[in-house]
Amino acid sequence: MPEIKKNSKVYFTLQLLMLVGGAVIAAFALEFFLVPVYILDGGITGVAIIVHQLSKLPLGILVFLFNLPFLFVGYLQLGKRFIAKAATAMIIFSVFLEVFGGIEKSVTDDPLLATVFGGIFLGIGVGGVLRAGGCLDGTETLALLISRKTSVSVGQFVLICNVIIYSAAGIIFTPDRAMYSLITYFITSKVIDLIEEGLEQAKAVMIITNEGKRIANTIYENLGRTVTMLEGEGLISGKKVVLYCVVTRVELHELKRLIRNDDASAFMTVSDVSEIVGKHIKKKAPSAEV
Fold first, then answer.
1. Partners of 238 in beta bridges
2. For the chain, which domains are there?
3. In angstroms, what CA-CA distances link 117 with 42, 99, 122, 269?
4. Nearest 10 degrees: CA dihedral of 52, 55, 56, 59?
5. Does residue 195 register a pLDDT over 50?
6. I need a labelling partner for 120 at 20 to 30 A (CA). Which of 31, 46, 69, 216 fits?
7. 197-240 tens-digit pLDDT
8. What angle, rounded to 10 degrees, do the helices at 175-196 and 111-131 form?
9. DSSP codes joined into one string, 110-152
10. Which contacts of 155-163 are long-range, i.e. CB under 8 A and separated by 24 or more positions?
11. How open is the CA angle 31-35-39, to the nearest 5 degrees?
């Protein structure tokens, strides 16, 4: 089977299908499994579900409106491509929440079955969107921006937000709804791990290139990440520059695109980071620090 080029129309079509399909599956998981039995998703969607259950306002509209401020902030701080994909996924997600919500039919009334299967379908949907380079929830966009300026990681921020949201659900509804929601969160996270290579893992990237300074500055200017530059020599290719940097999972897709645009011949490896010890230097000044 021939390899699909990443800048081809076929590749773009597959990415779009994954983005749309993921958003539709996530909406299906919420409206047919979780929402009917008062089980929450995390993040902004979880807040929207609480407001929906209390006010009976349309869930799709609430999700879209609550995410708008985060899209605006993300547009100012992150790449236009990422925000375009995120906005597309969120709009489709909101539309299908309304479509499925109008059917008013749940697959099961058993909260445990709804938790398990709702979490699985939600993980498949969210994982597909993330793998296509988008996102469905503004919390993750905000978490990425905060992680650049503080020592709080993306995963830590998302977890803190979800604990607050689930605690509120326990007070507003019943404690068992909060516990079911927490189980859903962990199931969803594990499914996303399988699809998108880890929801909260940092990634170590090593790039071997002839355009070391240019790529380092591009990474710094677009992602706010500093890069360690090493000298290397290939057996056949001769002297090379080896770049090493650590990024979040959300940034990885954009990093690949930036490197392809700067040096199509660059060789890159990506590996999981199990632990980071020491301060992770982030963007502070206009000029690159390498």
1. 234
2. 9-196 (no CATH), 202-273 (3.30.70.120)
3. 16, 20, 8, 35
4. -30
5. yes
6. 69
7. 544 467 899 999 988 899 999 999 888 888 999 988 887 878 88
8. 40
9. -HHHHHHHHHHHHHHHHHHHHHTT--S-HHHHHHHHHHHHSS-
10. 155/199, 155/200, 155/201, 158/42, 158/43, 158/200, 161/42, 161/43, 162/42, 162/43, 162/46
11. 140
CA 209 – CA 126 distance, rounded (Å) = 33
d(CA 164, CA 148): 22
Q: Which residues of 55-88 are buried (b: 16+ CB within 10 A; e: fewer)?
A: eeebbbebbbebbeebbeebbeebbeebbebbbb
Q: Which of 105, 99, 124 is nearest to 33 (CA)?
A: 105
Q: What is the mean pLDDT of residues 103-110?
A: 81
Q: E-strand spans in the chain?
A: 202-209, 228-234, 238-248, 267-273
Residue count (the chain)? 290
DSSP string across 185-226: HHHHHHHHHHHHS-SS-EEEEEEEES-HHHHHHHHHHHH-B-
For residues 158 and 142, the answer to whether their CB atoms sit within 8 Å is no
**Taking all residues of the chain, what is their mean pLDDT, rounded to a whole number?**
83
Q: How far apart are CA 204 and CA 40, in angstroms?
A: 33
Is residue 285 within 8 Å of 226, Cβ to Cβ? no
Which pair of tokens denotes residue 177? 């709804």
